[in-house]
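Quick one:
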Amino acid sequence: MGDQRRAFHKSAARNMTRTLRNAQRVATVLLGLCVPFLIVLLVWDLTANMNPVPAVVTIAGLVMLCFFFSYVFVVPDDLTSSATDRTLSIASKIFVHTRNGMTPDAALGACQIILPETLASAMCITNGREVLASWGEGCERYPTGQPVVLETTLSVIETQVMSVFSRDASDTRGLEFFPRMRAGIVAPLTVRGRCVGTLELYYPRFGNIDTRQTALATGFADLISTQLASFELERQEEVSARVELRALQSQVDPHFLFNTIGTIVSLVRTEPEKARSLLIDFSNYYRQTLSDSESLTTLERELEQGIRYINLMQARYGDGRLRVVAQIEDGMGSCRVPPFILQPLLENCIKHAMRETDPLTIHLRARTIANGAEIVVADDGIGMSEQVRAHLFDPPDAARPAEPATVTADGSIKRGCGLALCNVLMRIHFFFGDESGIAVESTEGVGTTITVRLLGEPHEPAPTGTLLPSSAS
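Output:
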């Protein structure tokens, strides 16, 4: 029944537009026939007849045709433009409240916008189980959190079909809510085929409800449903991004783990204090690696994590094989950055840039730039070809045969620097958007420079409003 009403209103709107266009065509034909005739008649009256009455009548006919022309061609377009602007304005105002889900505050804001556009005296929005917000006459008797008891509401939630109802004094169930309202419209809010709540309009008399009121109820319910569906898609996309970040974060390389433990064990007898210090670094390193990846951190914490990794690598290869030179601009330590972006870049330098015997120097720089911050990790290692650099951020190709396993400088299995860079780039986009990113410059035999630019204000995910839960859930 609700689908039939919705189809009827859409069909009526289309037929009204077609009728208006046909009327304009007919008016054009009549105007083209009548105006020349009236002008000829006016000239004849003025020249052949001394009586002014026919001429006055002819002029009056021309004036009436002009008014008719204005009504058919000008007024409908102005009315249509005005109605369109008003509709878009209402939709934008509702979106401001519902873009983060249907919370009680969002529902109240939507009620305050929708009610004046109808003939209803009161309205409410429910989540299928309880009232989220009510507004209008008697709304204080239907507060937020009030359980849904109206049979019509329960029926609409079950059938997902809009319903128009009336009630008399014999209806005792729910009569205490909006007691002066004798009729109403209940429209379902649906998202992906399930009813997540209702939009309800209440009227003093059943005679106040006509096709325009039912069309408004259906239209506003569809508008809110569409915005809730959009919010759900955005939320699912963000959840998927978080899951993928956690999956990448939790990939612990067993070879690096075993080799680092072996290095610490070898120092326990000869250099116990150094072994103790490395063990603390090792513990803090993995504690940080497995910690929360959904919140922004500071550059200072990222530097601490990077230094822990460098300490472990220097213990394995010696201070002479690996050096790090840091140049951090004053005040950059408190700069908010995505977590786990610096250590993977340092790890890439050691894995892919270190030569067989020559030492490797890594330069780490951080500074502020226009509208953001810049972090640079540069090495003087073996570099890479232009062909390799061009495909660093390509997604892994499952159809491509796997390359033979190669042990890298830190003792782990070589997996390609693209995985770590893609991980870092994903974190950057997750928190700062697509305007920020990574630039890689490299020359074979000279070295590689990786530049991270973080532009604008970061988006830190926070708990947001939820969708209206289904009453069946």
